[in-house]
Amino acid sequence: MATTPKVLCAIYTRKSTEEGLDQNFNSLDAQHDACANYIASQKSEGWVTLKDRYDDGGFSGGTLERPAIKRLLEDVRKGLVNTIVVYKIDRLSRSLADFAKLVELFDQHKVTFVSVTQSFNTTTSMGRLTLNILLSFAQFERELSGERVRDKIAASRKRGIWMGGMPALGYDVVERKLVPNPKEAAIVQEIFARFAATPSMATIVKDLRKRGVTSKSWTTAKGVVREGKLITKGLVYKIFSNPVYIGIAAYKGQHFPGEHDGIITQELWDTVQMHLKNGTPMNKARLAGRGSAPSLLRGIIFSEQGRAFTPGWTRKQHKTYRYYINTDSIKIGKESCDICRIPAGEIEQVVVEKMRGILRSPEVLAHAVREVNAQRPKVEETKAISALQSVDAVWDELFPAEQAKVLHTLVERITVRKDGISIKWHDKGLNKLLRDTLEPQKELEAA
Questions:
Q1: Helix axes of 381-393 and 344-359: crossing angle, nearest 10 degrees
Q2: DSSP state, 120?
Q3: Gyration radius of the chain's alpha carbons
Q4: What is the DSSP letter of 110?
Q5: What one-character DSSP code corresponds to residue 423?
Q6: For 143-165, what is the mean pLDDT?
Q7: Cβ distance 9 to 48 under 8 Å?
Q8: For residues 265 and 269, what is the distance between their CA atoms, to the nearest angstrom?
Q9: H/E/C letters for each residue in 1-50?
Q10: Mind giving me the DSSP string for 342-408?
Q11: Is the dihedral of CA 377, 379, 385, 387 positive or negative?
């Protein structure tokens, strides 16, 4: 008598939300029991339930980024599963695109799947048609639900209702409504009042940081604590641009009267907005300077504290002046750093002269050539040294982008100190420059 082969059945369950999962018998357990009973009814066909459970609680069916489904698919690839049993097809996926990938994988490994409440066989064309129809409705339902949620959020925003998330500095959330936090509100009011009287962002930020004032500390719904950080210019600008402080709820660029109370008067708000509008932190002259003057040291120049210097421009009497500016002075204020900005032309000249000095040193170049010869077919030393020296000879004729490429090939990092600068050279910079220089010459010779 022939023995019925075993059919290894994996039960997969899923629930989109975490609601009710802490109960002794939850939705995942109910799905699992229904699937287990179905498998038991097929015992005569050799069906057996695998001991491993594949449960995804609190995960959407619109994506395959779920821990249990990933584990299940890995077991399918290992040949540990013959049949996948689900309560409903949409438990496996609500996306047609994702389900097509699953079907392709199942076909490759000769794995079938069964829906306890929707009988069909995926090995037949009719079964596949039924499956696609069911999935189309599942995806339609998911998209429709998403539209309903978005419509509800939009309608609530238009009515000025708080829709969750981290509240702005100055407010707490009480019973799903924004309520002023007296201590934080006083700080926000001070920031607005001081800027309205004397629009000096750096002075305000420096004083607030000295006093230890931070951004909003917040505990998420999942209990994750997010500690506030010291005030920066960026945060103050964000405060100045948030209409929540005058009792307004904003949604997609539109403003609606909010359910909450404002903590700033309209007059004070308007004064601050006028100061911001009249300020020119990035005027047209600076923008024009970007295209006309290269920044050779962009990305490789830092302070002793490790803060990057970024290119900046000012314009006086129709003349543009370039600088490298310490990012701390931009974010916090000039008082936050020892050296806030450096004339770009001066420091670039110093670095370039040091680099060209290396390219003029036969001893240094010869050492680099010998290192290259140890790793690749031999190159003539005299010819190689001449190629490197030619970079120095034509330096002033190179385009700015070419100069920057050479400089970044040789220089790893520039550190600015009160008493000068230090340059860290790339260990294999000359070797790379030599290879880059020789390759075009070889192509010309071959031609």
A1: 160
A2: -
A3: 33
A4: T
A5: E
A6: 63
A7: yes
A8: 6
A9: CCCCCCEEEEEEEEECCCCCCCCCCCHHHHHHHHHHHHHHHCHHHCEEEC
A10: EEHHHHHHHHHHHHHHHHT-HHHHHHHHHHHHTTSS---HHHHHHHHHHHHHTGGGS-HHHHHHHHH
A11: negative
Write the pLDDT tens digit of every residue in 160-210. 566 567 888 988 888 878 889 999 999 999 999 888 887 778 888 888 888
Question: C-alpha angle with apex 290: 287 to 294, nearest 5 degrees?
Answer: 170
Using the predicted structure, report yes or no on whether residue 318 has a pLDDT greater than 80.
Answer: no
Contacts for 299-303: CB closer than 8 Å, 24+ residues apart: 299/408, 300/408, 300/411, 300/412, 300/413, 300/414, 301/347, 301/413, 301/414, 301/416, 302/413, 302/414, 302/415, 302/416, 303/328, 303/337, 303/338, 303/339, 303/415, 303/416
Check: CB of residue 84 under 8 Å from CB of residue 92: yes
169: closest CA among 186, 153, 157?
Answer: 186
- DSSP tally for the chain: helices H, then strands E: 16, 17
Has residue 68 got a pLDDT over 90?
Answer: yes
As to burial, measured by CB atoms within 10 angstroms (0-12 exposed, 13-18 middle, 19+ buried), residue 415 is: middle
Kind of pairing between the strands at 7-15 and 54-57: parallel
The more confident residue out of 303 and 149 is 303
| Beta pairing partners, 80 | none
Amino acid (one-letter) located at 299:
G
E-assigned strands of 234-283?
248-251, 254-257
Among 166, 168, 93, 172, residue whose Cα is nearest residue 134: 93
Where are any strands of DSSP class E within 231-278? 248-251, 254-257
Please give the pLDDT value at position 112: 86
Average of per-residue pLDDT values in the chain: 80
pLDDT band per the 50, 70, 90 thresholds, residue 69:
very high
User: Which residues, at least 6 apart from 329, have a Cβ–Cβ distance to it below 8 Å?
Assistant: 336, 337, 340, 341
The rounded distance, in Å, linking the Cα atoms of 350 and 345 is 9
Structure tokens that stand for 125 in this block: 């064309």
Question: Is the distance from CB of 434 to CB of 372 less than 8 angstroms?
Answer: yes
Of 134, 37, 34, which Cα lies nearest the Cα of 92? 134
| pTM, entire model | 0.41
